[in-house]
C-alpha cells in the first residue's frame, strides 16, 4: 500500500515534508508525523499521522497517489465508479483486476495498480493528473553520476520507475 508513515524514508517523504514546511531530510520521523497530524486535523481529515491517497489529494500532491490492494478511501471509490464496478472504497482483488483490464485496453503496463500514469487516462480524474504530476511521480536514473560526470547513454535511457520504489525503512 502506498502510504507514508513514521519510520519510512525516500523521495515521497521529502515531497511530503516540503509541502508540510518541515525539514525535508527524507526521513519520516516525529516532527513530520506531528506536522502531518496538525495538517490533517486542520483540513478535516483523519488525524492519524499517516499520509495516503486522500491526504495527498487534499494537499495537492497527486504525484504521490498510488492506489493498490489494501488502499481505502474516497480516491478508491472514485476509481471504482469510473471503472464501473461496485464502489465500496476498498481496493481489493476485484478492483485490481478491473484496473489491469483498463491498463491492457489503454496500452499501459498491466500491473493492477492505479498511479498517476493510469489515473491520468481515466476521465473522472481529468485535470488532477497533469503531465507535470505524472513526470513527478516517476524517478529516472541520474544523468550525472556522483563524480559529476555524465552517465552512459544506456543508463540515462533506462525506463523511469515510480518514486515509490525509493521508499525504505530507516528504523530497525
Portion of residues in beta strands equals under 5%
Proportion in helices: 25-40%
CATH superfamily: PGBD-like superfamily/PGBD
Number of strands: 4
CATH overall fold name: Muramoyl-pentapeptide Carboxypeptidase, domain 1
CATH architecture tag: Orthogonal Bundle
Shape: globular
Average the pLDDT over all residues and give the rounded result.
Answer: 86
- Kindly report the spatial arrangement of strands forming the biggest sheet: 1-4
Query: What's the gyration radius in Å?
Result: 17 Å
Structural class: mainly alpha
Name of the CATH class: Mainly Alpha
Total helical elements: 8
Q: Which helices and strands appear, and what pairs or packs with what?
A:
Layout: E1 8-9, H1 11-20, H2 30-42, H3 53-59, H4 74-83, H5 93-105, H6 116-119, H7 131-136, E2 138-139, H8 153-156, E3 161-162, E4 168-169
Antiparallel strand pairs: 1-4, 2-3
Summary keywords:
mainly alpha, Muramoyl-pentapeptide Carboxypeptidase, domain 1, two-stranded antiparallel ribbon, 4 strands, Peptidoglycan-binding protein
